[in-house]
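Saturday, quiet lab. Running sequence design on the C-alpha cells for the scaffold JK sent over.
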C-alpha cells in the first residue's frame, strides 16, 4: 500500500506574513491526516514555513532550484540553500516553468540528479497540452518526459521520487481531467517506470495527479488505483485544502 501524498503548490502567492497565517490555520487540520502533506511555498516564505512546521508531520517543499552547486547564476537558488532551511521536497519541471522559463526535459533531468545528491525529494512534473492530447500524443509524450527525467537515476533513488501528472489543459482552468483520463496516464507512467526499473519500484513509486483538484473532485480521483495523491495549485491557498487532504 502506497501512502498518499498531497502537496500544495502555492506558486507566486502569499507574502511571508500571509504564509504564516495560512500555515497556522492549516496545521491543526492536516497534521494528523493519513496522507503525507507538503507545502511548496515561494522561496522567501521557506524560512518562515520551516519554523512554523517544526515538530509537525507537514513537510516544506520548494517550487524550483538550479542544478549547479553554486556560482554566477544571478537570481537562482541552489539545493544546498534549500536543504539548510529544512526543505524536503522540490517541484521540478512544472509546466509553468517549462512554458514561461524555457525549462526542458534536459534541465529537468539535471535538476533531478542534483536534488537527489542533496537529499531533496523531487516532485517531477509531466503532462500534455490540449493540442497534444487531441492529436493522440499524450502517452508517448509523457513516456518521453519520464524517460528523460529519470536518465542516470539509480533504482534506489528512483523509488523515492514523486511524479506529478499534470495535463496542462487542466491547470488553473477549473477543467479537471476525468478520473478515467487521469488514471489512464498515471497507470501508463507506472508502466514506464516498470520498464525502466522493474515491478517492485513501479509498485512503490508515488504518482500524483494535478490540475484543478478541489475538495469536490479529490476523493473520486484518489479512488483510482494508480493515483497516489495530488499536486494542488489554487485550492492549496485556502483552509479548504484540508478537505482535500482529509478526503472521504
Ligand atoms: P491548479 O494547479 O490546481 O490551480 O490547477 C495545479 C498545479 O499547477 O500544480
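Result came back. Writing it out in full:
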Amino acid at each position: 500500500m502506497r501512502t498518499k501524498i498531497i502537496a500544495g503548490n502555492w506558486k507566486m502567492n502569499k507574502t511571508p506574513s500571509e504564509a504564516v497565517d495560512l500555515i497556522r490555520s492549516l496545521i491543526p487540520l492536516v497534521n494528523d491526516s493519513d496522507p503525507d502533506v507538503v507545502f511548496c511555498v515561494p522561496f522567501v516564505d521557506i524560512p518562515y514555513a520551516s519554523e512554523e512546521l517544526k515538530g509537525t508531520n507537514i513537510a516544506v517543499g520548494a517550487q524550483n532550484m538550479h542544478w549547479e552547486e553554486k556560482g554566477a547564476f544571478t537570481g537562482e537558488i541552489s539545493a544546498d540553500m534549500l536543504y539548510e532551511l529544512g526543505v524536503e521536497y522540490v517541484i521540478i519541471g512544472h509546466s509553468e516553468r517549462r512554458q514561461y522559463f524555457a525549462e526542458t526535459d534536459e534541465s529537468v533531468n539535471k535538476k533531478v540528479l542534483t536534488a537527489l545528491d542533496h537529499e531533496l525529494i523531487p516532485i517531477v512534473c509531466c503532462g500534455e497540452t490540449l493540442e497534444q492530447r487531441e492529436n493522440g500524443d499524450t502517452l508517448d509524450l509523457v513516456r518521453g518526459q519520464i524517460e528523460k527525467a529519470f536518465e542516470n537515476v539509480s533504482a534506489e533513488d528512483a523509488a523515492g521520487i514523486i511524479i506529478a501528472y499534470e495535463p496542462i489543459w487542466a491547470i488553473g482552468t477549473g477543467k479537471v481531467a476525468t478520473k478515467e483520463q487521469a488514471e489512464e496516464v498515471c497507470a501508463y507512467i507506472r508502466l514506464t517506470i516498470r520498464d525502466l526499473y522493474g515491478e517492485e519500484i513501479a509498485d512503490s513509486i508515488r504518482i500524483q495527479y494535478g490540475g484543478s483538484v478541489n475538495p469536490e473532485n479529490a476523493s473520486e480521483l484518489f479512488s483510482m488505483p494508480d493515483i497516489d495523491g495530488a499536486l494542488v495549485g489554487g485550492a492549496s491557498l485556502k483552509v479548504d485544502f484540508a478537505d482535500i487532504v482529509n478526503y472521504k
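Notes for JK: The chain has twelve helices and eight strands. The longest strand covers residues 121-126. Ask whether to fix the surface positions before the next round.
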